[in-house]
Amino acid sequence: MSRPVIAVEEKPDPKLRDEIVKPLRAYNESKIGPIKVEPLAITLNDPDTGAVIGGLWGTSAVGLLYVDLLVVPEELRGQGLGRELLAKAEDMAHKRGCQGLWLYTATFQAPAFYEKLGFTPFGHLPNYAAGHDNIYYCKRLSR
Structure pTM? Predict the structure, then answer.
């Protein structure tokens, strides 16, 4: 094979990600077997309009559910909605056969919230955004 050409796509078509991931998935599956990737959305909806006002977005793969986004509108925080969203995500993780969940949060966001819910830190990225750190968390699920 000739040397490949490197191309930079500043505004890539989202489908391009699928092309990039193909050889990685093939390699990973050669080592660990078939990988089933399943997205998950759990929404908070306005009771009057039905509009989405927050929620959780995640993806399960290789035995873990990654919580990519967890958003509760500021005026609704402290009412247990974030805990309910994560409980539903844990239920789905169990249903999908996952052994745990993982996520990251910034130090100005919700580290204490996740720790109170049983998440333990496993990584730390200092000075990620404007002097704040990112903390990576995992929560193992009991079977």
Answer: 0.89
